[in-house]
Design goal:
26 helices; 22 strands; single chain; about 45% helix; alpha/beta; 6-stranded parallel beta sheet
């Protein structure tokens, strides 16, 4: 297929006339059958690089991704574009899995999204052997590296898939990888002479600022009250999201909050409200942001220090995806160094304690010695911690170490919205006469609100159904069960329980091995990451952006000239921009609200680069309008 035909696919399904930087290079590399590694910062458009080739090539592209929520979002988006895609993950019902597998075997799918855990399932591998695969995609590829900041042992299963299909090209994608992680990705995925495409980690429109603040909540208000536009405030605890959001609301700044503990409907509503501009500020934990494509975020504030520059760069990078002037602000206090270093001891409890926790988890879930192979069990972390007197952080850290050692896997992201599929034909439905009044009312409401119920499972919202049918949510639940028992539809109720998967049978704790590569080496890596993060936060000698770029291996990086360190060396304070902006606005007002920018630049004596940058900001934020060389202050 030639370039014009590929661009026509891009136009037909996504509405774009051309690819972004590096996208076309990666697409063409995959289409030529080469192993490929793409390093694209947050917002670089990674998904296009495998979705376009999937439509060009014959067969099914298999996409391995760690986040169930992101998997669902991508499949839903593809379906809206009339692209055939399905996902398979551990939270699906048996009937849902069978429907997805049937579509695969009938050749009705172009993209198959799977969690890495699925790759060790022999039944799934058997199904794969019956398919014609086009290529393999590994999203968030840093998860395969033990030196990556978010190592997932299940990602090591991908090598098994690669051995099954040695001739298939593999595309690995990540937004953050140091040179060591980059090499490790290629090694773990058994890549053969890979084509590596790197996008610069520099973001010329983002001003990186570190601001000391002992009273951080007030500093957040101070920043937001002096800037305009959509903003994100990142914190490290769920409690803080609500506290800061309510504080900002009382202070007159529209805000809402988001964290992993909220119901999926609430998360979706708040995300949609923020994305369409219903509120200005989203206060969130790092659960918010993956897959969010909102280009006009002007300010990202970090109230707490992330544990690594990888995480900070990803989250800060959600600012300014439209290329306009934006700010990434990190707030620091005298307590932050100790708080960050404490995470090391929290993340690596003593080995013996980890082994004892394994024994208690097995007892709690009634897994006998030498039993439990491939067992999946719901696991209430809060109840377990209350029962045995564990602090939740240390419990979760022990579970993570046991997961990396291969003894069990704790799966936290298991909230699943209710979903329904009608099992009878449409004509048959109209001939049913023995239904209760509630059942008839509910079926009518379902068909009005949710198209596609006869072909596939559709997510439903009981609260919206309640408004549509005038039935309370309990009656809706009972009526759905009634219809499910009558085999008129299949109803999968909403669930929130985390669960534990046992890849091996239970072992005696004296035989458990938490190896040096799992414990000492990863602890050392974490210490290095925290050291780099503290250097960024508290070292005022080196340009902030240059420090980030060098961390990611860009050795030819120059000082950015925009961050607080660069400004300080030029004798500018962090508030210099504000003073310049006030001078520009005052000048325009003194000219009756209209001024020639060439004369203004000469009169104000602001450095030319700075003047252009500030003017771009004022125009982009709607403070002024432009007509040729004349600017006007908006009302």
């Amino acid at each position: 297929m030639n370039r014009e035909e590929i661009l026509s696919i891009l136009k037909k399904y996504w509405g774009y006339d051309s690819f972004r930087i590096l996208q076309e290079d990666i697409v063409m590399s995959v289409l030529s059958g080469k192993d490929t590694l793409g390093l694209m910062p947050t917002g670089g458009g990674k998904s296009i690089t495998f979705q376009v080739p999937a439509l060009v090539l014959d067969g099914v592209a298999i996409v391995v991704t760690p986040l169930i929520s992101l998997m669902k979002d991508q499949v839903d988006n593809l379906k809206r574009r009339n692209i055939k895609a399905v996902y398979l993950h551990s939270g699906m019902s048996l009937r849902e899995r069978r429907l997805a597998e049937e579509k695969l075997l009938n050749g009705k799918v172009k993209l198959l999204y799977v969690s890495p855990e699925r790759l060790r399932n022999e039944n799934f591998i058997s199904i794969l052997r019956m398919l014609s695969l086009s290529f393999i995609v590994v999203d968030e590829a840093h998860c395969i590296s033990q030196w990556g900041y978010d190592f997932r042992p299940a990602y090591l299963n991908i090598a098994k898939l690669r051995k099954l299909y040695p001739s298939l090209p593999i595309l690995a994608l990540t937004a953050t990888a140091t040179p060591d992680v980059e090499k490790d990705i290629c090694r773990q995925l058994l890549m053969k002479d890979p084509c590596i495409f790197r996008m610069s980690f520099a973001r010329s429109n983002i001003n990186y600022i570190v601001r000391p603040a002992e009273t951080k909540i007030y500093e957040i208000f101070h920043i937001l009250s002096r800037t305009r536009g959509c903003s994100i405030v990142y914190v490290r605890s769920r409690k803080k999201t609500k506290e800061i959001s309510e504080y900002l609301e009382l202070a007159g700044i529209p805000a809402t909050f988001y964290h992993a503990g909220l119901d999926s409907e609430v998360k979706e509503e708040r995300q949609n409200l923020w994305q369409r501009g219903g509120v200005r500020v989203m206060v969130a934990t790092n659960a918010f942001g993956m897959g969010i494509d909102k280009p006009d975020v002007r300010v990202v504030i970090h109230c707490d220090l992330p544990p690594s520059l990888e995480e900070y760069y990803q989250e800060a990078g959600r600012a300014g995806r439209d290329g306009k002037l934006s700010w990434a602000v990190l707030l620091t206090s005298s307590k932050d160094t100790a708080l960050l270093k404490r995470r090391i001891t929290e993340a690596f409890p003593p080995r013996y304690d980890v082994k004892v926790l394994y024994e208690r988890v097995c007892n709690y879930l009634h897994v006998a010695m030498d039993e439990g192979y491939e067992k999946i069990a719901e696991f209430d972390v809060d109840k377990f911690c209350d029962t045995f007197g564990y602090q939740q952080k240390r419990c979760l850290s022990s579970l993570r170490l046991l997961g990396q050692a291969g003894y069990l896997e704790f799966m936290e992201e298991t909230e699943h919205r209710s979903r329904v599929m009608i099992l009878v034909e449409r004509e048959e439905l109209y001939q049913l006469h023995a239904l209760s009044g509630d059942a008839e009312n509910l079926l009518s409401g379902l068909m009005r609100l949710y198209p596609g119920l006869f072909a596939d499972y559709v997510f439903i919202n009981e609260r919206i159904l309640s408004n549509e049918t005038s039935m309370n949510e309990q009656r809706i639940y009972e009526t759905l069960l009634e219809l499910s028992r009558a085999k008129i539809l299949h109803y999968v109720p909403r669930t929130r329980s985390p669960f534990i998967y046992f890849p091996t049978a239970r072992e005696e704790i004296k035989y458990l091995i938490i190896g040096k590569n799992i414990y000492e080496e990863r602890k050392s890596v974490m210490e290095q990451r925290i050291k780099a993060m503290l250097g960024y936060a508290f070292d005022t000698d080196m340009c902030r952006e240059r420090r980030i770029l060098e961390y990611f291996g860009q050795r030819d990086a120059c000082n950015c000239g925009r961050c607080d360190v660069c400004r300080s060396k030029r004798g500018e304070s962090p508030g210099s921009d504000k003073k310049y902006l006030e001078r520009i606005i005052s000048y325009i007002e003194s000219k009756g609200g209209e001024a020639d920018i060439r004369i203004m630049e000469n009169d104000l004596k602001i450095p030319s680069d700075k003047f252009k940058q500030l003017f771009s900001f004022l125009s982009g934020e709607g403070y002024i309008t432009m007509s040729g060389n004349v600017c006007r202050k908006t009302e």
